[in-house]
Amino acid sequence: MKESDSSETLQRIHLALESAGQIFARFSLGAIEAEYKAGHDPVTEADKAVDAVLRQELLREGEGWLSEESVDDLSRLQKKRVWIVDPLDGTREFVAGIPEFCVSVAMVEDGIPVAGGICNPATSEIFLGSLEAGVTYNGKPARASQRTSLEGAVILASRSEINRGEWKRFETAAVKLRPMGSVAYKLALVSAGLADITFTLTPKHEWDIAAGAALVASAGGFISTLESSQLLCNRKSPLLPGLLAGGGFLRDELFSLVKEYLPASSGR
Question: What domain range includes position 246?
């Protein structure tokens, strides 16, 4: 993506996130009604309203669209540029009144997340970045963790995965585990160096991680699925194997920590 295209894309993302934030201002945390989709995932009026405003603000002629709250139009597979969005990542936290939810917007070119924006309306945080421009956190330049050792590193872990006991195997590691909702928000915090690492060994959808992946890569960090060091999006099935992300110097140590849980076919 050219620098001029990157600037226009980031401007579009920023305006879309601001419009989404105005929608969230209508709601009171912890006093929100939710419906439940198949698989028991909650969906609220906010999810649907934000999806509509994101589509209106972002989508242009010739671009594709993939959103958790939209019917999937597979014509996106023929598009070079595709928006991949989650209008509300962390709906359970939103409904429960926990300020760990966000709007997640990614621009993907030829399958690669090249620009992204994530905003947390509850904390007034905006993370914005592209591979060309780097990352800003609330308008100021930011970068991924420069820590060189895993010892003492802050790892953001899925609260629901911890509750299910999936992180017990890592409790003896010399790291600081911090439970949190919303995988997109966790990735955003890692991109700005506000945490060192996040990872999950369970599958995630492209809309959960595309924007955060763009931000982490743009901030000089690393992002990888469990099967490949290259994250490719806009696939026919948007479900991806788990992922690992963090400061660039921590990659090898992190893979050593989780290697016994990686697929044999990963080639690591």
Answer: 154-266
